[in-house]
Amino acid sequence: MRAWAERGRTLPGRHDPEWMRLSAPWRGLDQFSVPLDPRDGGR
Fold it and tell me: pTM score, two decimals?
């Protein structure tokens, strides 16, 4: 188990932030940030 953990692999019974992020309910389009002032003037 230590070798797997050292390589960043998922282990049963351990907190996995990536799995939590992927399995979280979809929040819609508010999860993406859109710049309010486009650098190219909106063209």
Answer: 0.41
